[in-house]
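Our platform keeps sequence and structure together, in a single record for each protein. Such a record has a labelled line for the sequence and another for the backbone structure tokens. Nothing more is needed to write down the fold, since each code stands for a local backbone conformation. For reference, a complete record is included directly beneath this paragraph:
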Amino acid sequence: MKSTSMSEPILRQVRNNKLLMFFLKLTMSIIILYFVMRNIDWIKTADLLKNANLWLLLACVFLLLVLLYLRALRWQYLAGSFEAKIPFKESFYQNVVSLAFANATPARIGEAIKIKFLKDQSKITYFRAILVAIFEKATDFAILLFCLFLGCVLVFFTGPLSALFLIIFISYCGLLIVSVLLLRPFFKIAFKITKKFKKQIEPFFI
């Protein structure tokens, strides 16, 4: 009886914490939606949607989902390289939420929330989570440089804009995968360094 009576306050506290977290997340979601949508002209948007090509719109949504899928795979792979094992579902969730934060904050600093998510989900230190984010941005930078080169080449492209868009999109998706594979040796080196200096460095990022 004593153990039951002692566990009841603990269970109540856990429920209260979950309820508090729910309302915090709900509040943050409302704030983000406000900042994202506050400057939208809904009448003009409705007119544009009425005149939009439905199949082209659906194709764009599909391509966006493909892009999010590839980014989630990349985040999961990079996290795994630093012994931060997360399921694909969680990786996808972290990418979508951080993208929402990025669009609602200056200079996309809200995207850094992925670091917090990764630390909490995989129980690694902030130091390793930050390293994962740094290497993700390194792959983004490598892709950006290639896209800059591709853009210079495609200046002389005379075909339809839809074909140009498709070329750029396919190139970007392919580079998401290739850049991770090319940078894989650097991931291993960085991980070995963090293991070697773990006792000296990681306590500052717990």
In short: The chain has a mean pLDDT of 76. The radius of gyration is 22 Å.
